[in-house]
Amino acid sequence: MVHLVTRGIKISVETTYEGSFYRDYKIQYAFGYTVTIENQSQDAVQLNSRHWEIYDALNNIEIVNGEGVIGKTPIIQPGESHTYNSGCLLSSPFGAMKGFYNMLNFTTSRIFKVTIPTFKLEAPFAIN
């Protein structure tokens, strides 16, 4: 599990390998990840949008931008957290993800970025 705190918002990520399958005659490796967003600040915040950079070992990069996470724009009060599960597909058994969330601070009415730490995606059978 990886953790990173940005401006009082702690991001923790845990990953799982879900398996592989063929799609359009190409093998795909499925990974799941669980993200916990913990508000350690003194202000209520809302997650408005996300930006992901998804890398695989074949030098493919996928950029994903969107509103909220899994269809939600959660408001997180001080001392509370929000956890969600999602996933991605890679063309190789190794990869990584990183990114950021745009959050609204309700006290200051300002948008700020919260860094999502780089985390590895690894199929256990391919690890030395």
Task: Please write out the topology.
Elements: E1 2-6, E2 9-23, E3 26-39, E4 45-56, E5 61-67, E6 75-76, E7 81-90, E8 94-105, E9 110-122
Domain ApaG: 3-128
Protein name: Co2+/Mg2+ efflux protein ApaG
InterPro entries: ApaG-like (IPR050718), ApaG_domain (IPR007474), ApaG_sf (IPR036767)
List keywords for this structure.
single chain; four-stranded antiparallel sheet; elongated; mainly beta; five-stranded antiparallel sheet; Immunoglobulin-like
Structural class: mainly beta
Order of helices and strands: EEEEEEEEE
CATH class: Mainly Beta
CA radius of gyration: 16 Å
How much of the sequence lies in strands comes to over 45%
CATH architectural type: Sandwich
- First-to-last CA distance: 19 Å
- Whole-number count of domains: 1
- By DSSP (H or I, 4+ residues per run), the number of helices equals 0
Low-confidence stretches: none
CATH-derived topology: Immunoglobulin-like
Pfam family, one: DUF525
InterPro entries: ApaG-like, ApaG_domain, ApaG_sf
Protein name: Co2+/Mg2+ efflux protein ApaG
Organism: Aestuariibaculum sediminum
What do you see in this structure?
- The protein is mostly beta strands and 128 residues long.
- It has one domain (2-119): Sandwich (Immunoglobulin-like).
- The chain has strands at 2-6, 9-23, 26-39, 45-56, 61-67, 75-76, 81-90, 94-105, 110-122.
- Strand 1 (2-6) and strand 2 (9-23) form a beta hairpin.
- The chain is elongated.
- The two termini are 19 Å apart.
- The model has no long low-confidence stretch (mean pLDDT 96).
- This is Co2+/Mg2+ efflux protein ApaG.
- It comes from Aestuariibaculum sediminum.
- Residues 3-128 form the ApaG domain.
- Pfam families: DUF525.
